[in-house]
Amino acid sequence: MAKKEVYLIDGHSVIFRSYYAFIRNPLRNSKGENTSAIFGFVNTLRKILKEKKPEYIGCVFDSKAPTFRHKIFLEYKKVRPEAPSDLKYQVPVIKEICQAYGIKTIEVSGYEADDVLATLAKKLKAENCKIYIIATDKDLFPIVNDDIIIYDTYREILYDKEKVKERFGIEPALISDFLALTGDKIDNVPGVKGIGEKTAIEILKKYGNLEKALEKDERLKGKEEEIFFSKKLVSLRTDVPIEIDIEDLRIKERDNQKLLTIFKELGFKSFLDDFAEEKIDVEKSLKIITDATFFKKEEAFAFLITENKVYLGNKKVIYEGDLNSLKELFSTEKEKITFDLKEQYQYLEDWEFKNFFDIKIAAYLLEPERKRFLLEDLILSYLKILKKQLNEREKIFYIYSIYEQLLPELLVRNLTELFFNIEMPLIPCLYRIEKRGIKIDVDFFKNLAKELNNEILLLQKEIYKLSGLYFNLNSPKQLAAVLFDKLKLPIPKGKERSTASEVLIELLPYSPIIEKILRYRELNKILTTYVKPFPQLCDKNFRLHTYFDQTKTATGRLASLSPNLQNIPVRGELGQKIRKGFISEDGYLLISADYSQIELRILAHITEDENLIAIFLEDKDIHTATAAKIFKVKEEAVKEDMRRFAKMVNYGLIYGMSDYGLAESLRLKKEEAKEFMENYLNSFPKVKAWREAIIEKAKEEGFTKTIFGRPRYFPTLLAPNKTLYEQAKRQAINAPIQGSAADIIKKAMVEVDKKLMAKGFNIGLILTVHDELLFEIEEERVEEAKAIIKETMENIYPLKVPLKVNIGVGKNWQEAHP
User: Fold this and answer.
1) Which residue in 776, 818, 772, 810 sits closest to 793, CA to CA?
2) For residue 619, how many other CB atoms are within 10 A of its CB?
3) Which of 372, 465, 545, 725 could hold 437 in an S-S bridge, CB 3.0 to 4.6 Å?
């Protein structure tokens, strides 16, 4: 007689896995509520129902009541953080969905889901069933046998006896013994101190089981009581009082109307297809038209341009044709919607046009922490539809559909000015910068590569001599063994056994090898990241073309990629050398325009601190003036080391540095750092008040904003994890300042580029690096360009203090840098 197949779902296991799968970019419904766990759970459920077509299925949930484990061990699961508040309200909805699918939900007061699953599995096995438990928890592995399988739907792994043995090296029946020895950090089960997974497996393989190991292994002597206690905590109960038989798990008729209502409320449009009599075919739903004048009466249309044709449309019609015939339409006031305008701009650069809407940029402003902005990702997030392959017609349909959601969101969150006046005008400006590129002296970089390579080889020899052996300098593991095992260097207090730069810096007094290792790393990074690749990456005219990503950083700063020209060291001998290799064309000069202390000026504007404002209005040196206040001396008595110290304090405060962070950076005692911090904040009382207020506001509202309204969100400001909380505090202080600087620079880029083009300059803006803009200008027009650049940049936005721009000119970037 064939065995009946039963599928049992570990409810909370799937729920938590689904919630954290979207933790960086949570799915939300129209009310802004997190729906990630529900979406992931339903996806898993649909997968099982479609692929396995189970006749018998149940979903088991943890009980809220304390279990017997909590009663015998008060610390059980104490280290687990409380479930996030935006997860808790999703659980009842998931239970309701299960019931609407006709699936029995099971919960036994005082027992964990694992115990209920183990009891049910044992009972159903006795009734000649084969049981598949949908879970990822290793705690369930002890019950695995020929008829009980753990099914990990995320990794697509079926854990039968052989698969468990392959993963752990022991039989499933020994997993409880294994956990009794190792403990379980997640559940706070103690285990035996000093015995890790490898040792536990070795012991169990040698003796066969825990009881024999306790008799013969010296490492376990005297620890019997704690081991048996741990085993009691990890062992699954198979005697949970539950009256359920196989027929109780038979799947019932699905309540389509209830599911339709729930999924519509949640915005899960992709799931609605399960209940439609005919699935919507995007291409069939689009009417093909042959006359583009149709769109003259529409307020907006979506478009995509490929090498051969242009596609126009909305959710009802689609047009395919030649771009050149659409110049008049593109010059109208109609909203022209697309995805990734910069990638298509090569086809539009000679046209006069306006009113473009890039859904990629709009989504970025609404979700600046999101890591990916592929069209498929936006379709999933905003339309809840999973699409992997799209043709151009489908893309038009989805781009327009997403636009319909994004525009109201931009309006509600007051982001339209930032979107239409800064981010969208920036796109053609960035396209032109990328296209122009920046010229390099190829021979210079090839010679510099040889020079750096020779110094690196010399450093390697010196390091090997000091260490007494050859090893892979680029291997953190081998380097750590040399430093801490062979050379016996101390591990800095409060640090781990690490070879990170901040750890090595603390080891500088202990061995001359450290300085050489740090220098080796610096040179090797410069050589491999910049100097060596640059000649290979330039075009036939020896110009490098970087790519600027508008959606890469949460603060609003631009990111330079392939190659990254923003991370070239600014100061120091190497940074200056590299900049020397960036040159102008014959008959041209480079102009570097650098905002002076823009973030500190923004801090003065935002906080309205009279003392800070006065320093800038009087055009004093901010770091000298700050040093005088911190050290309580006259400005003329400030020495260079005092000024340098004050500079670190000034910028440290912008980045939300605490007194502890200041002590670490300046190698001070915490008490000294605290005193300096207090002196600073007492000198600028409104800065102090603003720092405190912005954190409280961020906690209350969940975000901060720049002067121009750019938001940055801080969900971890309410996190119980202290590290995450402190990091969020620092970011909440920094985001309005750094983000406002980014917005000002973007505005300046757009305006300066526009003015230089209007005046007929041949090249113009060729690079932006944080607060600096770099231009390539005809020699005979340099003074004219300098005047335009300086006037525009300094008057781009009316702060309460003057914006100041330092300008330099030269044949190479190093000469031009002011």
Assistant:
1) 772
2) 10
3) 545
DSSP 510: G
| Burial label, 205 (beta-carbon count in 10 A; 0-12, 13-18, 19+) | exposed
pTM of the model: 0.70
CB 422 within 8 A of CB 746: yes
Lowest mean pLDDT: which of 236-250, 644-658, 744-758? 644-658
Distances (CA, A) of 17 to 14, 29, 59, 718: 5, 19, 15, 21
Q: How far apart are CA 27 and CA 19, in angstroms?
A: 9
Q: Sorting pLDDT into bands at 50, 70 and 90, what band is 278?
A: very low
Q: Are 10 and 63 in contact (CB under 8 A)?
A: no
The stretch 334-352 carries a mean pLDDT of 91
Domain spans of the chain, in order of start: 4-165+237-249, 282-413, 442-541, 598-722
When pLDDT is cut at 50, 70 and 90, the band that residue 79 belongs to is very low
Is the pLDDT score of 597 beyond 70? yes
Selection from 802, 810, 804, 747 nearest residue 774 by Cα: 810
- Tell me how far the alpha carbon of residue 419 is from its chain's centroid: 22
- Share of residues in the chain with pLDDT > 70 (%): 90
Classified by CATH at the fold level, domain 442-541 comes out as: Taq DNA Polymerase; Chain T, domain 4 (1.20.1060)
Alpha-carbon distance 386 to 402, whole Å?
A: 14
Residue 144 pLDDT > 90: no
Bridge partners, 616 (sequence order): none
Looking at per-residue confidence, does 408 or 156 come out higher? 408
**Architecture of the 598-722 domain:** Orthogonal Bundle (1.10)
Q: CATH homologous superfamily for 282-413?
A: Ribonuclease H-like superfamily/Ribonuclease H (3.30.420.10)
* Residue pointed to by tokens 């399960």: 274
> Distance (Å, rounded) from C-alpha 288 to C-alpha 276?
24
pLDDT over 70 at 774, yes or no: yes
Which residues are paired to 133 by β-bridges? 8, 150
Q: Region 59-64: what's the mean pLDDT?
A: 87
Angle between helix 670-683 and 659-666 (nearest 10): 120
Is the Cβ–Cβ distance between 571 and 426 less than 8 Å? no
**Which token pair is 155?**
């990794």
DSSP letters of 192-209?
-TT--HHHHHHHHHHHSS
Model confidence at 250, pLDDT cuts 50, 70, 90, reads very high
Q: Please list the alpha-helical segments (H only) found in 468-511.
A: 476-480, 501-506
| Cα–Cα distance measured from residue 212 to residue 433, given in angstroms and rounded to the nearest whole number | 73
Residue 327 to residue 523: CA distance in whole angstroms: 52
**Alpha-carbon distances, residue 304 vs 281, 311, 593 (angstroms):** 20, 5, 36
Q: Across the strands, what pairs with 449?
A: none
- Helix, strand, or coil (residue 320): strand
As a CATH number, domain 4-165+237-249 is 3.40.50.1010
Residues 378/409, Cβ–Cβ less than 8 Å: no
Residue with tokens 């209830």: 258
- Is the pLDDT at 652 greater than 60? The verdict is yes
The answer to whether 681 touches 733, Cβ cutoff 8 Å, is no
pLDDT, mean over the chain: 87
Determine the Cα–Cα distance for residues 759 and 782; give it in Å rounded to an integer.
Answer: 13
